[in-house]
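Journal club prep — side note

Before the paper discussion, L.F. wants everyone to see what a predicted structure for a comparable chain looks like in token form. Sequence:
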Amino acid sequence: MILLSLGNFFAILSIGIASNLDNAGASIAYGIRKIRIPWFSNFIISLMGFFLTLVGGIFGKWMALWLKPSIGNLIGMIVLVIIGICLLYPTLLNSKSVRYVSTSSPILKILRNKDELDLDGSKTLGFGESILLGISLSVNNLVGGFDVGVTHLSIWGISFISGVLSYVCVGLCAYLGSRFAAEKLGKQASFMAGILLILVGLHQIF
């Protein structure tokens, strides 16, 4: 039972880390551009991560009521692997057709350009901007929460961990970006998140 609990904790922690690595890339970009993310704005971003993780978890847990545990694990694995592959190949998401849609729709443009949300040019992330950034950064959290719910893990655990990791990651990486201009680290964040999501997904089956 102890080993099982440790295994569940490791799975939840891995999903939480992978869900928040995208935050690292965006936060480093803000730091390099000397755009401040005040503690309250960071709190709003982490709150969005917590909330969307919980929403995904509740939906996944509801689906799990109608599925055998083995089927739930299989669905969770498929979802994580697909999202992981998409993160590994960002060029697939930057095709001309997608770029055309994103530029013609302000909402989609905001969601895609996470590191360009200083809309008023104040060099400080405001309340409204932090909400938009929090939502755009929490798509992975939504998927991670769904996986935890459908595989019968703790949705409150993953929500709390995702929120805390989001706050720490955004604050730390914004500092690193402003202090050391860690651009290469930011560019590798999505790649590392993709690898981690695929490994966690495969671990749920094998």
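L.F.'s comment for the group: The chain is about 80% helix and 0% strand. Keep this in mind when we get to the figures.
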